[in-house]
Amino acid sequence: QYLKNPKTLEAYYYFSSAINLATKAKEKRLIQLSLIGVLNLIREEVFIGSKQYVPYLNYLRELREDVIDDFTIALFETVFLSKANVDLKVDVNYYEKVHKMDSIIRLLPLDHPFYVHFYIEKAVHHKILKEYELAESFFLKVDSATVNKTYWKDFYYTNLWQLANLKLDQKKYDEAKKKG
To answer: Which of 71, 66, 10, 64 lies closest to 32, judged by CA?
Structure first.
């Protein structure tokens, strides 16, 4: 078991139960929501190189119906493939999944909440490529979209950490302190 935090383990248990109950009731959207819950837990606690997410993501793929589902799947693929191995190198399929996410997001209205997820993953993508200015521009879009919004609080703080880390990668220590 990779999930270590007792609260996470408890949540994992409840989401797993929800998946089973929703499956028995043949409630497709409830199964999807429960799978997304498990994937979000794994996303927060994943060890680099872990494949614990695979069966849940595969199940989510089986239930896919629309562009929202496509984006959700592409987002999780991107997130997990960016944490692919202990050498801190991304999976070879990572770039293909980022491209897929790019093409799907264009189908959604500009005010869709998925743009926040998209911006943070694009920022990480550019950071991986050492395209620091582009990475910062996407992190700043996340900042603008999440500041003073309670429901985006976790993203806001994750984004601040990412901005500070970006400055550290560039050896801009004074700017990193300001961001962090």
So the answer is: 64
